[in-house]
Amino acid sequence: MTGRAEVNPLPATDISGTTRLYAVLGDPVAQVRAPALLNSLFTCLGVDAVLVPVHVQPCHLGEVVRGLQRVGNLDGMLVTVPHKIEARAFADAVSPAVTLSGSTNALRREPDGRWFADNFDGAGFVLGLRANGFDPAGKRVSLVGAGGAGGAIAAALLEAGVDHLAVCDRDEVILAALGSRMHAAYPNRVSLGTQPRLAAMDLVVNATPLGLRADDALPLDVMALSAGTVVADIIMKPRETALLRAAAARGHVVHHGEHMLTHQLDLYREFFRLDEAARSQNGAVQ
User: Fold this and answer.
1) What is the pLDDT of residues 25-52, one digit of tens each?
2) Averaged pLDDT, 178-195
């Protein structure tokens, strides 16, 4: 024996000097599922790229984003809680979805070096609902949380044709700002409040971070829900949040947070021009 501890080498990776970089920014980031999904997509498409999680506290967001934007081989960023509203300030141009929601969850570097922001949370959420048999058109919906993801979901639900959307948030400034944009775009279809409206709703959505931690309070009172109300949570880890467990125990159909992300994959694929990257990289190899 040599006295040295045996080292089991890590599996070889394909990361090299030509690998393009993407980052997902959040606080925390332990719960993010985007790296596994996007990196699998890169592999399937044959794109030489990797997405890594970046843990950044709100007080350092500006420093980190501006630093990443100066990394020459970084092509894009995804944004998660709690940075979605603040991150839009680091874009040179934004999509209509960002303008309406007030937040972004994706930024890409354009060929001229400028940064463009979009938001796919709402579109992904609605696609996930429909894929699981719930069409929001004509329904009454209560949305708990008017922050970054909540704003995107509000805009997408209204575009999808909900009959009425009741939005609540304890932060009256954020609530009023979202309400102003929603009222202008969809008059007479939105109501606001600091407490959730739960009676006689077809769908109730938790768009707050409550549920990420085991000791979080429930974001709403499941005892106040009407029979037949579908309960959705946008939190992805844990998959079975305390809210979903409590709602299911009372007989409600529940909708898991993972659907919002998985139904954004094709949108990210188009947004980050991954098919174009695959053709370019594979052609270069050939």
Assistant:
1) 999 999 899 999 999 999 999 999 999 9
2) 96
> What is Dmax (Cα atoms) for the chain?
79
Task: Supply angle C-alpha 68, 72, 75, rounded to 5.
Answer: 70
* Cβ-count burial 127-138 (b if 16+ within 10 Å, e if not): bbbeeeebebee
> DSSP letters along 130-149, please?
HHTT---TT-EEEEE--SHH
Q: Per the structure block, which two tokens stand in for 120?
A: 């796919």
Kindly tell me if the per-residue pLDDT of 152 is higher than 90: yes
Catalytic residue numbers read: 84
Residue ranges of domains in the chain, CATH in brackets:
20-119+264-275 (3.40.50.10860), 122-261 (3.40.50.720)
**CA–CA distance, 191 with 208 (Å, rounded to integer):** 18
CB-count burial class (<10 Å; 0-12, 13-18, 19+) for 183: middle
> Pairing mode, if any, of strands 106-109 and 74-79?
antiparallel
